[in-house]
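Revision sheet: C-alpha cells.
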Amino acid sequence: MAYTIRAHGAAGSFSAVGRQEYQLKSFSKTNITQAELDALVTSVQTLNTITIIGAFVAGTSDVVNMLIEGGAIANSDIVAGGATFTVGDVAF
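Predicted:
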C-alpha cells in the first residue's frame, strides 16, 4: 500500500487523505511546455482535485504524473490548450 505524509506531519495510507476516489494518472505529450501544463491542470481541475503533480521540466518532459481525487478520468486522449495528451494509469 502506498503511503503519504501530510505537510503538518500526519502520516497514513492514501485513503487517510481527503476523498476516497483516487487515480494516479500519466499525461503524455512530446516536449510539454509550461503553458500546456497550465492548460492541462486547469482542464483536470474542472471536475477533480489535483493532490500531487510529479516531476516536470518545461519544454523537455514528455510525461507528467498526477495524483487526482474525484471522478474518473478515462484512459484516452484529452485536449487542453490546443495540445493533445494521452492519458494512462500509473502502476506502482
